[in-house]
């Protein structure tokens, strides 16, 4: 590559990057400056001519007709007003429910949570009605301001005209204009007044809702505080015994009458109930149809063995949150179904009989305990229930701990888990006995719901993973190479996302289970709103999560689009691998940049702030990031000019050779023929000399030196070498092979065979084949390849070496003839 062209491209890229920091930014500052200039430069509006006034009075008629058409198009607010009346009625019902629960004990916490969820839903409904009203009221207010400006303008003209008003046409124009403006303002006012009244009603409803939410939060906080205090008699005291005796004499106080559903519940949630039933029926039918196939697969056998449980758990886990906080008995039904389905699924994965029995007992206890709370059973009976089951739990799990320790190979994780469960039961038991009944009830409720949520979450993770695997296998991947080649990676990404959603859902419900928040929506909102303020911006966890999701989505989209382009779109033509890689890399950089900017925008950073960051980066580049930017710009040059492509064989400045395997944003990876990876900064590839053996043409000239002994027939040797080259199908015919007699060497006559081959990658294989053929033909033709010959001349030798040499050169003495006896 010519040096002048390289540096011109680098300078151009640097100017483009620097210009992007100074040309794009500062919209607010520029707008403010333009507004200031416009304000200072615009003079007072001159008084129009009489002809213009008369003409403008005529256009007012058309503007008034347009106003009448637009106001007639505005929808009637009667339906909106009726919906607000219904919302107001629900708010009044909330007050009644709160007043009735104000004197209840700890068992009213779930009812308070239900009321808070209903209030939240009503608030969202009112917010939607307010948005609808705003769509109608905003244009009406704009029209009113416009006609008030016209009235003021015509009044100013009237005051400035003076004697010109004596003209009949002018006076008539002003009279007609005044009448039409008054008519327009009256029309707008009649339309605006009821809207403002409705707006006032919305404000009153929102104020009452805020007051109710504060009241509920105060009541819940009081109950959470009361739960940590005692005040109830100990379990073995006479006072507690007297409470049980009183309940036995008045059985009507044991359970409160409660409707199965609240008024309007089925009307509002009928679609959701139908949807859950449809999902259950479809899943059950499909599982029963493929039951024999699923049973024969070890990791999917549970789908065929427990089809009803799977079909129940999926719609309950996936859709129940849409109920908000359902009526108590309906919640009890859903909880029972979910508990039974979870227990059935979990027992399929567990081999130990005592663990399966424990799961069934846990689910049964949880359902019974939630039923006691929902039905409003007196606290004395709830304490007795807690005493019995926690005592049994301490005995049973304590016995299991001792049995596990006494085993041959105790699993210490299982032992510590059992110890933790035993400790939890013991704490609940002790607090219940000593009179902290509220705290014991809260611990029991939280522990049961935590265990249930963890079991359900694990079961849903397993179900989701299996469902995604089956879904990926059923996709038609035959013609879609990207899906076929990346099925495992796509599945892994989907499993990661689904697991994250399930864990998030479980964590939100755990916060509710331990009464840190009333409903899951409050828990999610509180977690996502946690943050800190930086330079006037409040950065919350929710914003960071949204930005992370956007960036992750940008990377996933880039990865998917790169795969589709490389394997399904660009591979259909005759484009080489390097060109395809350059295109997909540019697409990747563009998508990541767009995703980064959208993520910054989602976090509240404006364009001018990004410009400030760009200026700071410019200063940093000037001081310490020159190499990074140089490598980045050089990478762009490599992508656009493509002097080096993936798959090219290059020789670096230090003599190392290898094949380019990756062109990165900062560096290029070269794999040597020994499979060593060399990471070369892109700046070095642009600024230093690099030999590319396969840039424009993959063919190359192969040179094979040959030496034969002195006395060999030169013509025979050249004829043999030419025959070897011309008869090989790997050697190109054009350019023709060439045999040269180069030199009289020290030990041989030196020849050279020069041939051209089509592919640089096959040079060593072709060279080996040609040398073997040359050796075979030389043996047939008795052409000798000599050994290297060297003559050694001794100038001086020490006496010891000379004596040894002389002794070796002297002939041995004759053997002595033995004498005969």
Automatic annotation (TrEMBL):
The record's GO CC annotations read: plasma membrane
Which intervals hold domain Mechanosensitive ion channel transmembrane helices 2/3? Answer: 588-626
An annotated Gene Ontology molecular function:
mechanosensitive monoatomic ion channel activity
Which domain of life does the UniProt lineage start with? Bacteria
Primary location group: membrane
- Say which species the protein is native to: Desulfosarcina ovata subsp. ovata
Q: Does the keyword Phosphoprotein apply?
A: no
Region described as Disordered: spans on this chain: 800-821
- Annotated Mechanosensitive ion channel MscS C-terminal domain residues: 703-783
- Localized where? Cell membrane
The record's family statement is: Belongs to the MscS (TC 1.A.23) family.
Do you know which InterPro entries this protein is assigned to? Answer: LSM_dom_sf, MS_channel_1st, MS_channel_C, MscS-like_channel, MscS_beta-dom_sf, MscS_channel_2nd, MscS_channel_C_sf, MscS_channel_TM-2
Could you list this entry's UniProt keywords, alphabetically sorted: Cell membrane, Coiled coil, Membrane, Transmembrane, Transmembrane helix
Which stretches are tagged as biased composition: Pro residues?
810-821
Give one Pfam family: MS_channel_1st
Coiled-coil ranges (or none):
77-104
Membrane-spanning residues: 270-287, 308-324, 330-350, 357-375, 381-399, 420-440, 446-464, 490-519, 539-565, 586-605, 611-640
Q: Gene3D superfamilies in the record, alphabetically?
A: 1.10.287.1260, 2.30.30.60, 3.30.70.100
| Entry keyword Cell membrane | yes
Identify this protein by name. Mechanosensitive ion channel protein MscS
- What sequence ranges are listed for the domain Mechanosensitive ion channel MscS? 627-694
Its placement in the membrane is given as:
Multi-pass membrane protein
């Amino acid at each position: 590559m010519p040096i002048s062209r390289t540096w011109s491209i680098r300078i151009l890229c640097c100017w483009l990057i620097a210009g992007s920091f100074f040309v794009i930014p500062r919209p607010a500052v520029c707008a403010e400056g333009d507004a200031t200039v416009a304000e200072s430069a615009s003079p007072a509006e001159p008084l129009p001519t009489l002809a213009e006034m008369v003409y403008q009075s005529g256009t007012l008629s058309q503007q008034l007709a347009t106003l009448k058409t637009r106001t007639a198009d505005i929808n009637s607010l009667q339906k909106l007003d009726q919906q607000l009346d219904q919302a107001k009625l629900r708010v009044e019902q909330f007050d009644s429910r709160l007043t009735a629960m104000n004197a209840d004990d700890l068992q009213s916490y779930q009812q308070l949570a239900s009321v808070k969820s209903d209030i939240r839903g009503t608030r969202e409904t009112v917010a939607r009605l307010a948005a609808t009203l705003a769509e109608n009221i905003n244009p009406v207010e704009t029209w009113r301001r416009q006609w008030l400006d016209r009235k003021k303008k015509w009044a100013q003209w009237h005051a400035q005209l003076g004697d010109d008003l004596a003209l009949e046409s002018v006076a008539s124009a002003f009279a007609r204009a005044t009448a039409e403006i008054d008519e327009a303002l009256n029309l707008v006012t009649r339309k605006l007044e009821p809207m403002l009244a409705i707006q006032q009603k919305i404000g009153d409803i929102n104020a009452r809702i805020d007051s109710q939410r504060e009241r509920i939060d105060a009541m819940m906080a009081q109950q959470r505080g009361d739960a940590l205090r005692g005040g109830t008699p100990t379990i073995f005291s006479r006072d507690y015994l007297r409470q049980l005796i009183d309940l036995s004499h008045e059985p009507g106080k044991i359970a409160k009458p409660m409707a199965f559903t609240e008024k309007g519940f089925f009307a509002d949630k009928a679609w959701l109930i139908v949807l859950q039933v449809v999902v259950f029926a479809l899943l059950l039918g499909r599982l029963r149809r493929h039951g024999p196939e699923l049973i024969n697969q070890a990791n999917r056998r549970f789908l065929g063995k427990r089809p009803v449980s799977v079909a129940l758990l999926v719609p309950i886990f996936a859709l129940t949150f849409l109920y908000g906080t359902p009526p108590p008995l309906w919640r009890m039904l859903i909880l029972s179904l979910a508990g039974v389905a979870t227990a059935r699924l979990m027992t399929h994965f567990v081999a130990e009989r005592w663990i399966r029995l424990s799961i069934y007992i846990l689910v049964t206890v949880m359902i019974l305990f939630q039923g006691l709370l929902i039905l409003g059973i007196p606290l004395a009976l709830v304490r007795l229930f807690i005493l019995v089951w926690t005592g049994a739990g301490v005995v049973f799990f304590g016995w299991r701990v001792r049995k596990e320790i006494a085993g041959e190979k105790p699993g210490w994780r299982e032992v510590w888990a059992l110890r933790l469960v035993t400790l939890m039961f013991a704490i609940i038991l002790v607090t219940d006995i000593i009179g902290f009944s509220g705290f014991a009830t809260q611990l029991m409720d939280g522990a049961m719901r935590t265990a249930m949520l963890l079991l359900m979450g694990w079961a849903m993770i397993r179900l989701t993973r299996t469902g995604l695997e089956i879904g990926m296998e059923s996709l038609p991947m035959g013609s879609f190479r990207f899906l076929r080649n990346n099925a495992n990676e796509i599945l892994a990404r989907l499993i990661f996302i689904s697991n994250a959603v399930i864990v998030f859902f479980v964590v939100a419900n755990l916060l509710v289970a331990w009464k840190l928040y009333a409903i899951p929506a409050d828990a999610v909102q509180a977690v996502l709103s946690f943050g800190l303020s930086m330079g006037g911006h409040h950065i919350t966890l929710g914003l960071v999560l949204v930005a992370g999701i956007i960036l992750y989505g940008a990377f996933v989209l880039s990865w998917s689009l790169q795969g589709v382009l490389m394997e399904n779109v660009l591979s259909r033509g005759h484009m080489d691998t390097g060109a395809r890689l350059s295109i997909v890399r540019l697409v990747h950089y563009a998508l990541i940049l767009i995703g980064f900017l959208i993520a910054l925008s989602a976090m509240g950073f404006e364009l001018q702030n990004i410009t400030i960051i760009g200026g700071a980066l410019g200063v940093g580049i000037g001081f310490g990031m020159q190499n990074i930017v140089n490598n980045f710009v050089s990478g762009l040059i490599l992508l656009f000019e493509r002097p080096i492509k993936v798959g090219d064989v290059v020789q670096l400045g230090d003599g190392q050779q290898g094949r380019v395997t990756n062109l990165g944003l900062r560096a290029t990876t070269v794999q040597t023929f020994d499979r060593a990876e060399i990471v070369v900064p892109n700046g070095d590839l642009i600024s230093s000399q690099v030999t590319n053996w396969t840039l424009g043409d993959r063919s190359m000239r192969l040179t094979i030196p040959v030496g034969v002994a002195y006395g060999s027939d030169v013509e025979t040797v050249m004829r043999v070498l030419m025959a070897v080259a011309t008869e090989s199908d790997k050697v190109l015919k054009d350019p023709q092979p060439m045999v040269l007699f180069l030199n009289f060497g020290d030990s041989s006559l030196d020849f050279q065979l020069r041939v051209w081959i089509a592919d640089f990658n096959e040079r060593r294989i072709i060279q080996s084949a040609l040398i073997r053929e040359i050796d075979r033909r030389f043996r047939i033709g008795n052409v000798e390849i000599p050994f290297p010959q060297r003559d050694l001349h001794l100038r001086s030798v020490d006496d010891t070496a000379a004596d040894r040499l002389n002794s070796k050169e002297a002939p041995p003495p004759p053997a002595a003839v033995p004498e005969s006896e």
